């Protein structure tokens, strides 16, 4: 009949301190050992994850917090070396996932952004990883009909894309490409529509 504990990951990382320094980690009995992982809030030097945008690292920290919390109760040890290996090798499909690309050629990035805030985070990540290094950008967008298409497109405009290709999200809840196109043009974007995702990708390149 009890309730499962709730950990807000940002508070989790910011509240822990070494024993005796007054941190609030004692609110979660048996989990203070997680304090030694706090440096992983930033990727270690040389890690493949060093180029990952902040929201991907936030997802990693959420998973690590859950693993540490569970390990205390399952009597399983999660070492710092385990955490480092996971940081370097972890994959989150659809979260700033680079499908292909070599220096000097097109790079395709898959991301599941579908809200105004996630679109803003995606644009920030693209700026840091690509746009500030001289890359241009084109977007292929498909989304559900219950999402805020106008606000989403307004956030994408901050990236100054060369083009936006609107298409279906491939589901029954998908917003029609023509309706998405209207939202894109309403945000001042140079947009067209394509009936399928493969065709939309071809038009974007």
From TrEMBL:
Span of domain Mur ligase C-terminal: 94-203
Superkingdom: Eukaryota
Any one GO molecular-function label of the UniProt entry: acid-amino acid ligase activity
Residue ranges that the Swiss-Prot or TrEMBL entry lists as coiled coil: none
Gene3D superfamilies recorded: Mur ligase, C-terminal domain (3.90.190.20)
Pfam family, one: Mur_ligase_C
This protein's name: Mur ligase C-terminal domain-containing protein
Originating organism: Chloropicon laureae
């Amino acid at each position: 009949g009890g309730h499962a504990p709730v950990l807000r990951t940002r508070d989790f990382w910011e509240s822990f301190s070494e024993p005796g320094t007054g941190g609030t980690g004692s609110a979660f009995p048996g989990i203070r050992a997680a304090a030694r992982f706090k440096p992983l809030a930033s990727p270690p030097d040389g890690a493949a994850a060093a180029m990952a945008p902040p929201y991907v690292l936030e997802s990693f920290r959420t998973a690590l917090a859950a693993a540490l919390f569970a390990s205390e109760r399952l009597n399983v040890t999660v070492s710092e070396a385990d955490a480092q290996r996971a940081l370097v090798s972890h994959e989150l499909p659809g979260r700033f996932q680079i499908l292909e690309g070599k220096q000097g050629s097109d790079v395709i990035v898959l991301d599941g952004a579908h809200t105004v805030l996630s679109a803003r985070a995606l644009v920030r990540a693209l700026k840091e990883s690509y746009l500030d290094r001289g890359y241009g950008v084109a977007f292929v967008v498909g989304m559900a009909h219950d999402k805020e298409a106008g606000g989403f497109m307004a956030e994408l405009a901050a990236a100054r894309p060369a083009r936006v290709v609107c298409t279906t999200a491939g589901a029954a809840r998908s917003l029609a490409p023509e309706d998405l196109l209207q939202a894109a043009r309403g945000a001042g974007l140079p947009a067209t529509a394509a009936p399928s995702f493969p065709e939309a990708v071809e038009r974007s390149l």
